[in-house]
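Ticket opened by: R.M.
Priority: normal
Category: complex prediction / small molecule

The reporter submitted a protein together with pyridoxal-5'-phosphate and asked that the result be attached to this ticket for the collaborator who will pick it up next week. Submitted input follows.
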Amino acid sequence: LANQLATLIAQAEIRLDRSTGTLREQLYRQLREAVLAGRLLPRTPLPSTRDLALVLGLARSTVVDALDQLKAEGYLETRQGAATCVAALERKMLGAGLASRALVADTPPAETLAATVQEQRAQWRNDDPPRPVTLRAFRPGLPDIRAFPAREWATHLARRARHPASHDLSYAGYLGVPALREQILSHVRLARHVQARPEQVILLPSAQAAFDLVAQLVLEPGDTAWTEDPGYPGIVSVLRAHKARIDPMPVDEQGLQPTATGPRPRLVYVTPSHQYPTGVTMSLPRRLSLLTLARRTGAAIIEDDYDSEFQYQGQPTASLQGLDRHGCVHYVGTFSKSLAPGLHVAYLIVPERFVDLAHAVATVRGLTVPIHVQLALADFLEAGGLRRHIRAMNSEYGARMAILVESLRQSSLLTVPAGVGGLQLCVGWSGEPVDTVAVAALQAAGIAAAPISPMCSVVRHNGLLLGVGLVQQHEVQAAAKMTCDVLRRLHRGA
Ligand SMILES: Cc1ncc(COP(=O)(O)O)c(C=O)c1O
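Result attached by the on-call engineer:
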C-alpha cells in the first residue's frame, strides 16, 4: 500500500504548498492535470481517501471534497464495489482538453501551426492600431478630449443608469434604440442632407466596425475594392482581412480620381467631405461620376464622414449619400471626433435594400453599443448638447487652425493649405530627408505628427499630418515655430 501511494503521488506530481491557495484546490488541480497529461493512466485505482489524507497530511474531508469534484467532472469514476479509479478517457479525447505533455505527438506539427498563425497575422494586420495618447501638439486623430462635456454627459448617463425602463436591460436596442436612431437621423438630415429611415441606421462601436460590416455585406474574397491614395490605413486593414484585392486610386485636388485600368470595383471607400489625409473636398462632378459608376456596375460606396462636423469657412459640402438615388452609398458617421473616441459610438446608414441583411450580420457578430450610453446619447442630442459642443469646438478648432496655418506659412519648406475644416492639417514637406525621419526628429523635440508617405500606395507624397485637437490655442504659435525650426535644422543637416 505504501508503495502504491508513493507511486501515485510521484506520478501525479503532487506538491502541496501551504502558503498559497486552498489545499483542496491544489489537490484537485494537480490530480486533474495528471489525468489530462496522461501521467495517471485510465483505470489506475486510487487509494482510499483515508490513506491519501494520512500520507498527504490533509484532513480527510479535504481529500473527499477534491475527489468528489473530480468525479463530478468526469476525471475519476467509481464502479460499484470497486475502488475509485481514473476515468477511462481516450487519449484522443484528452487532446481536446488542456495542453498536455503526454499528448504532444497528437498535436499538429509546430511549423503548421506557426504557418497558420503567420498567415492569419498577415491577413489581420492592423495598419493603424490604437496607441496611448500623448496630450501634446500636434497629435493628429483625436479631438480635444479634455473639453469633453463631462458634466452634462454624466447627468444624462446617471439618469438613464438609475432609472432604466425594464426593457432597457434586455436585448432591446441591440442595433440602436429608436430614440437614438431618430436623433442621429435628424442630426445628419440637417447637417449632412442624408436621407434615410430609422431602420437604416445601425449603431456600432466604431467607424471601423461599420467598414467591416459593409465589407461583410458586399465583398467576396478576391473582389476588387478601391481605396483613396493616400488614404486612411484603417480601411486597408479591413479590406485585407476580407481578402479583397485592394486597388488604390490617386487623390487630386478634386478627390478620388478613378483610373480606368483593372477590374471593376465591388466596393469604393471615400472620405468626400474632407479627404483623409489630404483634406481636399470631393468636387461635385467627381461625386456624380462616382455615383454613376456605382449605379452602372453595382458597386457599393462607403462614405466615411468622420469629421465633417468641423468647418471653419462656410458650410460643409452635403453628403454623397444625399445625392444617391439608387441605394449605392453606405454612410458612416462616428462620435469619435465630435465627442470622444472612448465613447465607442458610431453609426452606419445602409441603403434600404441592405437593411435586413445588415441587421442579421450585426446581430450574428454581436455588434452593439451599451444601452445606457445609447439612451444617454439620445437625451444629450435631444437636449441640444451635441449641437452646442460642436459649435463651441468648431470655433475653438477654427482659431487653432488659423494660427497654425499662419505660423507654418513662414516656412518655405512646407506647402500649407487653407485649413478650412477637420481636426488636422496636411502640409507638404519639400525638404530632406523623408517625412518619416522628419516626424521622428519632431517627436524628439516634443512635437507629435504623422508622416504622410506611409499612407501612400502608388502615389508619392512627402508630408506631415498635424492635429489641432490636443493643442491649446495659446500653445499653437510656439509649437508651430518649434516645428519649423526643427524641420529647417534637419533639412540643413541633410
Ligand atoms: C478617416 C477616418 N475614418 C474613421 C476614423 C475612426 O473612427 P472610429 O474611431 O469611429 O473607428 C478615423 C479616426 O481617426 C479617421 O481618421
